[in-house]
Amino acid sequence: MKIALIGYGKMGKEIEKIALSRNHEISMKIDIDNAADIEKLSPSNTNVAIEFTSPHTAFSNVMKSLEKNVPVVCGSTGWNDHLDEVKAFCLKKNLAFIWSSNYSIGVNIFFALNKYLAAIMNSYPVYEPSISEIHHIHKKDAPSGTAITLAEGLIQNYSKKKQWKLAPEKGNDILSIEAQRTGEVPGTHIIKYISSIDSIEIKHEAYNRQGLAFGAVLAAEFIRDKKGTFSMNDLLNISVS
User: Fold this and answer.
1) pLDDT at residue 141 is higher than 80
2) Cys staple from 164: which of 60, 137, 151, 183, with CB 3.0 to 4.6 Å?
3) How many CB atoms neighbour CB 26 within 10 A?
4) CB neighbours of residue 22 within 10 Å
5) For the segment 82-105, what is each residue's pLDDT rounded down to a tens digit?
6) Interior angle at CA 35, CA 73 and CA 222, nearest 5
7) Domains with residue ranges and CATH for the chain
């Protein structure tokens, strides 16, 4: 199929490699230097757009793509306040849209594992949970979208915590998230439960961006010819409350 890349940085280039290896065609490469080219998007030249930019441009890019009647896979984080508006507009246009804070298959399995562990730990409130994440110095949002998704999944299943906050803010009902930015780390996320006598920890560590890129291309293949709004759980058939 024909895929438009909105955002042609390191992730965009990695997505391009995966897409070409799966016999897809790159119809357009839209970046900061040719941002106006998004106006050229149409169903005649593009089947799906894959958007990986920044928190400041993602909403506009996604809405413009949907206005042009092109389904969208979005991996930008830090703009969650606008997600409901985008989903409503997508349904109005009778198109397809999928957003995920992380398209890695391994991370989405980790999301499910996080919820399952939190449900077990809910019976043992002597344990204090926390989340830490480490990313490269170029990442603009903190905490990461992946960490926020993990926090939301934990809070849903661990009644002791009612909200998340960026460290060092703490409180009895607050789930603390520590965000580190160092070097070129692709992404590491750690969930830890600590008591006075022991600790339990689960961890996901990405070695490179290939997992994200592969998942984004799978998502594009998945939503082609579909209508509605979707998540990676739909693609991977993962069912965890």
Assistant:
1) yes
2) 151
3) 17
4) 14
5) 999 999 999 999 999 999 989 999
6) 15
7) 2-99+210-236 (3.40.50.720), 105-206 (3.30.360.10)
